[in-house]
Task: inverse folding
């Protein structure tokens, strides 16, 4: 009898040990993210991956994708097909894609509450994403604010709003352009002008019909400045990269983008003249956060949470903000950090090429909701792009 | 026995095609008819076809695409004949190392379209390399005098890149034939005392023509669906079909999928049509070739 019990317990022990082993085995976390930027890829591969492997023993695998929309579709289709063991553990997302995922109910709920470092986050970053309430489905990863870049060699800040932009382009014909609105950056520029002309609060009050009506003002304005743009507005650069190229060869005087530290990164990589500087509009420029989320059918949710926690830690956010790495701004509340860390973040801003944190804070406007965004993009192509 | 052997040889290719393409094609077809829909229920509909066929945008893009591709292919065709003639003459008269010259001409075949499009952009844009050189040596007095060759309404930049890529391809396809013909028919030329030009006109050109026309159709078909070059060097409007599809795919919402798949099917069908023409041409010429060789 005793022997039997012994054997039984032994086998139980062996079994549980085996089960334990199996649980331990899953050390892979797949993060799906847009792979179009060399700086971001390098930061993820050379800085983040070795750190999480060393610290948590997690094997982080970055899966580059062309368009996050593909992943959104994949998750929705997988849900339809009832697939339980998906390959995506973390995905990098915001705005309309987040809305699509939220509507399809394919995201793991309440992940924000399960991340230890959540107490260090700026509270504003966890409420709304492009006007869509987050409800703990996403954890903020970084902060972006639209900014323009010009060469100080050519004089003072060229413009501060749509009226001064008109003066500027008329005085300097052929020296300004923006990417076409099919492009992410181009669409953001048009949005900035829309908000600058119509006012953010006014837009919020408009019905979709009124909004469409009022947009005609913007289309008239953009058509009015078109003859003074690069190539007389016959064509618009198809990407931010092309606009950057035009700027670096001196064909246009101004470039733009969402990364606040873009000017520092590009000077560091010797693509821009080192007299470049970034500036904002007086009434503010668009500002948004980008986020990390976990799909419902992820296989390694616990691992994903550890990685996300690591990514929003002060140490990693600091590395991310370094211009030579990525240059993306942090989402941490400076009041909740130690003085030494705050000083380190502050030191990163010392180059003087980007607006001060106070100015960035003061001159910012929230993103419009995805449905308004769509109206703007389609309207631009119809009314401006085709002319 | 011979037939079975042929079939066995084809199997790996067939498996590959099934795994990677046929399912894709199936998906595209079904989506275009309203199945596989991500939003709302899926059922058979011809709505997407109607939408595309009645849209002005699609026709504008189609015509623009065909225009640019035909111009590029025809230019490449004519220039290839010129290049063939030059190489032929230089080989006969022993002007320079022909093998080396051949390599130089064929080199662009190995450059990806994406790279060559960016190359053309950097070389020919307003503040590009060529412009700077012309300005330095004083041929143009101001940088803004330079003609616009990239991102222009008429697609000059696109056509230049296409020709730059297609010309070496056509040359690569036909140059070995030129040399072979020269070797085989040289004595005949001597007997009739033909000059180099007449020899090329009367003997080389007619024998090279079939291969040349086939490569012409290959280029035409390929360019019809090519994407990178018009994306980088084209204008915002009009766009070529592939760029139109890409823009609709990345910007449009999920309910646009059906329309996009219809456009894909139409692009593929037109490419197939070119392929069919190519097949007929091939058949037509092989009849001649067998007689003449």
Result:
């Amino acid at each position: 009898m005793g022997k039997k019990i012994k054997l039984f317990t032994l086998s139980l022990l062996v079994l549980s040990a085996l089960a334990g082993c199996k649980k331990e085995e899953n050390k892979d976390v797949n993060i799906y993210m847009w792979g179009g930027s060399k700086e971001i890829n390098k930061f993820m591969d050379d800085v983040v991956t070795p750190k999480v492997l060393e610290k948590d023993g997690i094997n982080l695998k970055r899966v580059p994708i062309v368009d996050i929309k593909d992943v959104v579709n994949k998750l929705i289709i997988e849900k339809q097909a009832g697939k339980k063991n998906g390959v995506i553990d973390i995905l990098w997302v915001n705005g309309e894609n987040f809305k699509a995922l939220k509507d399809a109910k394919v995201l793991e709920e309440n992940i924000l509450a399960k991340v230890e470092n959540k107490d260090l986050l700026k509270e504003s970053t966890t409420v709304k994403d492009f006007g869509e309430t987050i409800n703990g489905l996403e954890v903020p990863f970084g902060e972006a604010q639209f900014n323009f870049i010009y060469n100080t060699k050519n004089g003072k800040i060229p413009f501060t709003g749509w009226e001064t932009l008109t003066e500027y382009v008329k005085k300097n014909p052929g020296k300004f352009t923006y990417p076409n609105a099919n492009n992410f950056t181009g669409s953001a520029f048009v949005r900035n002008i829309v908000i600058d002309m119509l006012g953010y609060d006014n837009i919020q009050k408009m019905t979709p019909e009124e909004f469409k009506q009022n947009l005609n003002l913007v289309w008239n304005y953009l058509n009015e400045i078109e003859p003074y743009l690069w190539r007389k507005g016959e064509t618009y650069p198809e990407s931010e990269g092309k606009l950057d190229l035009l700027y670096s060869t001196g064909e246009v005087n101004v470039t733009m983008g969402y990364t606040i530290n873009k000017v520092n990164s590009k000077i560091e990589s010797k693509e821009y003249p080192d007299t470049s500087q970034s500036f904002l509009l007086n009434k503010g420029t668009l500002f948004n956060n980008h986020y990390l989320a976990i799909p419902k059918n992820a296989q390694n949710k616990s691992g994903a949470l550890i990685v996300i926690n690591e990514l929003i830690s002060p140490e990693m956010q600091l590395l991310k903000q370094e211009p030579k790495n990525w240059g993306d701004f942090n989402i941490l509340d400076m009041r909740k950090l130690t003085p030494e860390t705050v000083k380190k973040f502050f030191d990163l801003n010392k180059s003087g090429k980007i607006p001060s944190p106070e100015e960035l804070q003061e001159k910012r406007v929230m993103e419009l909701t995805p449905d308004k965004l769509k109206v703007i993009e389609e309207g631009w192509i119809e009314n401006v792009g085709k002319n | 026995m011979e037939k079975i052997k042929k079939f066995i040889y084809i199997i790996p290719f067939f498996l590959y095609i099934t795994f990677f393409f046929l399912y894709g094609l199936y998906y595209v077809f079904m989506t275009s008819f309203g199945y596989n829909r991500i939003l709302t229920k899926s059922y058979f509909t011809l709505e997407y076809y109607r939408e595309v066929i009645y849209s002005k945008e699609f026709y504008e893009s189609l015509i623009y695409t065909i225009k640019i591709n035909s111009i590029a292919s025809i230019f490449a065709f004519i220039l290839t004949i010129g290049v063939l003639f030059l190489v032929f003459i230089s080989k006969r008269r022993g002007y320079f190392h022909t093998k080396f010259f051949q390599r130089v001409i064929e080199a662009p075949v190995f450059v990806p379209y994406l790279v060559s499009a960016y190359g053309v952009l950097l070389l020919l844009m307003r503040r590009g390399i060529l412009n700077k050189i012309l300005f330095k040596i004083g041929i143009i007095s101001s940088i803004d005098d330079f003609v616009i060759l990239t991102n222009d309404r008429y697609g000059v930049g696109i056509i230049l890149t296409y020709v730059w890529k297609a010309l070496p391809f056509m040359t690569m396809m036909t140059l070995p034939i030129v040399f072979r013909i020269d070797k085989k028919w040289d004595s005949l030329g001597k007997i009739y005392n033909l000059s180099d030009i007449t020899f090329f006109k009367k003997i080389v050109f007619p024998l090279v023509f079939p291969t040349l026309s086939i490569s012409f159709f290959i280029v035409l078909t390929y360019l019809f669906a090519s994407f990178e070059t018009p994306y980088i060097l084209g204008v915002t409007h009009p766009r070529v079909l592939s760029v139109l599809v890409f823009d609709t795919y990345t910007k449009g919402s999920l309910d646009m999928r059906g329309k996009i798949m219809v456009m894909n099917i139409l692009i593929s069908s037109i490419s197939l049509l070119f392929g069919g023409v190519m097949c007929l041409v091939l058949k037509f010429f092989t009849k001649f070739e067998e007689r003449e060789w």
